[in-house]
Amino acid sequence: MRGRTLTAALALAVATALTVTPVASPASPSAPTRTVVPAPVVTLAAPDIAVANVQAHLTQFQTIAQQNGGHRRAGSAGYTASVAYVRAKLQAAGYTVTEQVCTTCVYRSNNLIAEWPAGPTDQVVMFGAHLDGVSAGPGINDNASGSSVLLENALVLAQQRPTMTKRVRFAWWTDEEQGLNGSEFYVNSLSATQRGHIKGYYNFDMVGSLNAGYFINRITSTTAAPLKAYWDSLGLQPEENVEGQGRSDDYPFQQAGIPTSGYAAGASARKTSTQAAKWGGTAGSSYDPCYHRSCDTTSNVSATVLNRNADGVAYAIWQLAVGSGTPGPCTGGESVGNGSFENGTAPWTGSTGVITNSTGQPARTGAYKAWLNGDGTTRTETLSQSVTLPAGCTSYTLTFHLHIDTAETTSIRVYDRLTVQLGGATLATYSNLNAAAGYVARTFDVAAYAGQTVTLTFTGTEDASLQTSFVVDDVTLQAS
Q: What pLDDT does 452 receive?
């Protein structure tokens, strides 16, 4: 949580925002009026989030801090490593993951945005937490706790792969501690239409405090209803998050007219005797005794509080965005676009000139192919495309035709390589030792990626002498 206090004017603005129906973004007068998230209609039960898995993420963030100067402040090596950890988990699970460079942040660094590739793109429910901490310590409750709760919820959603009635987008913000800069940059980067697609933003900042309170942002709003319903079912009697008003990443969304809510367990404010009577803990003491201190480690997190927050997030996701029933039947068809390379370069991306009609190497069909390397100089060339595999099919087959031509004379030593990856996992590696006349069909069962959006990547590496050409043509990914 950002460490500052509210001015009287800001406190009044926040209090007003809590009681007024959301309106169009003040920065975009022509934007459509925002609507609150509709009442839940879903009947499927939410999964139980294993708190041990959330704690494992906390441990990883603490290790990252220990290996990088003791903290994970935005722009630091510890923050960069934290982004890499979350990104790797999400990409492996099948999320569409992007990093947004925050050019207006105090410490130039990246927001991480992950979207589950199912549900209508104009009906988005968004869940966010800041990933950065202060330089005083590893920042485990503030805010590896919120970051880890969202990460594990995202992974469970990917594992369950339910039918989606809305699109779920997760965000891990940078530079929150310097003034909510990462989330503000993101909101400002959205068009009026894109803002209108976000039907609710939910923020999670410090959700494992040892002397916890159970607080909900804008607790009486329709947006907060699923969060409150879950905690009410546990008899927790949650309260409004007064301490956190205007101090975390929900504030830029709220200012843009997007409905907001979220959980918090409290920071440096002190627990009242009334709160201690209903929640336990110590009256007169801070909710988080290690707020913005070096002792904000894994020992500064309550497993019980963490678990209740994690399960409440899952309940909200399932109530807001998950439909009843199972994923629909297989739609089948082709997932790769422009697999014969005859229609220009899109949707492929990679090294310039890889897609070519040069007569130096023949295409298998048509005039174009992807020709990686073949220069006889030290060089790495890539070619990639994001592909979405439909759910519910019985067969998923990736096929491409590969011709390898080499001037290397050895029959035992590898000099040049082509690596083929899907979703970050290596499917195969070929080299100058695999050279052969003509094209050879290469086929792979990729059923493990059903229902996911992943990246197919060809990477060719060549050393400083004697060329090896890796020529790819007629790439298909068929589901049936």
A: 83
Of 395, 393, 340, 346, give the one whose Cα is nearest residue 370: 340
What is the set of domains in the chain, with CATH numbers? 8-321 (3.40.630.10), 333-479 (2.60.120.260)
Cis omega (within 30 of 0) for bond into 347: yes
CA distance linking residue 290 with residue 93, whole number of Å: 33
Q: What is the spatial distance between Cα 314 and Cα 303, in angstroms, rounded to a whole number? A: 16
Residues 377 and 462 sit within 8 Å (Cβ to Cβ): yes
What's residue 40's pLDDT? 38
pLDDT at 454: 87
Beta-bridge partners for 59: none
Q: What is the pTM of this model?
A: 0.64
- Give the C-alpha separation, 225 to 38, whole Å: 10
* Catalytic residue status for 239: no
Greatest distance between any 2 Cα atoms in the chain: 82
132 closest CA partner among 290, 254, 1: 1
pLDDT along the chain (480 residues), means of 10: 46 34 33 38 74 97 98 98 94 90 98 93 96 98 98 93 92 98 98 96 98 98 96 97 97 97 98 98 98 98 98 96 69 85 92 95 95 95 91 87 95 95 94 95 91 91 94 93
In whole angstroms, give the CA distance from residue 143 to residue 199.
24
Cα distances from 5 to residues 29, 129, 187, 261, 284, in angstroms, run 30, 20, 23, 20, 19
Alpha-carbon distance of 368 to 356, in angstroms, equals 5
What's the pLDDT at 8? 34
Closest CA to 133 of 100, 174, 87: 174
Q: What is the CA radius of gyration of the chain?
A: 25
For the sheet with 453-462, list strands across it. 349-350, 379-388, 453-462, 417-422, 425-431
pLDDT reported for residue 331: 67
CA 251 to chain CA centroid, nearest Å: 20
- Which entry of 115, 176, 177, 408 is annotated as an active-site residue? 176
pLDDT score recorded for residue 17: 35
* CA–CA separation, 363 and 368 (whole Å): 6
